[in-house]
Amino acid sequence: MRIDILTILPQLLDGPFSDSILKRAQEKNLVEIHLHNIRDYSTHRQKSVDDYQYGGGAGMVMTIQPIADCIAKLKSERDYDEIIYMTPDGDLLKQTICNELSLKENIIILCGHYKGVDQRVRDLFITREISIGSYVLSGGELGAAVLVDSIVRLLPGVLSDETSALTDSFQDNLLAPPVYTRPEDYNGHKVPDILLSGHTEKIEEWRAEQSIKRTQERRPDLLD
Fold first, then answer.
1. How far is it, in rounded angstroms, from Cα 208 to Cα 171?
2. Which CATH superfamily is domain 2-152 in?
3. pLDDT one-digit tens code per residue, 132-165
4. pTM of the entire structure?
């Protein structure tokens, strides 16, 4: 998989992509992550990428020219399955979207700033708009990092135990059950006996029951 991220602040993404699972995935050549500074494509003498809104109003708007030129260059080199815009008014990111995107080959992610991008960018180039929550961030970079992490961890070979991702919360529209490790007894707080029984079938039944119970208590909307 190849992921190209368009941003005016590429340095914000150096950290998330240079450690842990994302770093190992790149070292194994399971994913390529490329950062593109939108300012490099600006034809403006000062390399500006924003301007005032037509019609007035507070806040600047990202201009279409540098974004369009960057996308055009990338598309001239390869085909892309999705061009995604990170925006608060996009579709709320869910596990089903992550699963779907993990099957793609090439993805572009556009990070917005200011009051957003010129609407014509969205009309002409964007194939999907995604939000990571009902709140506003200073830019789309943190949202892009969340999206990339949620996709890449699903790629075969990224996790040491490939079944791990299949038992995560939301994979079956349920929250994950409680998990425990050593010690068995911590100041009188003990691991449930069923998990020490060695009876695989009963353990799985217990975990399924706990998943349903936890979902009912914390996210009943998922059961609807």
1. 13
2. SPOUT methyltransferase, trefoil knot domain (3.40.1280.10)
3. 999 999 999 999 999 999 999 999 999 976 556 6
4. 0.88
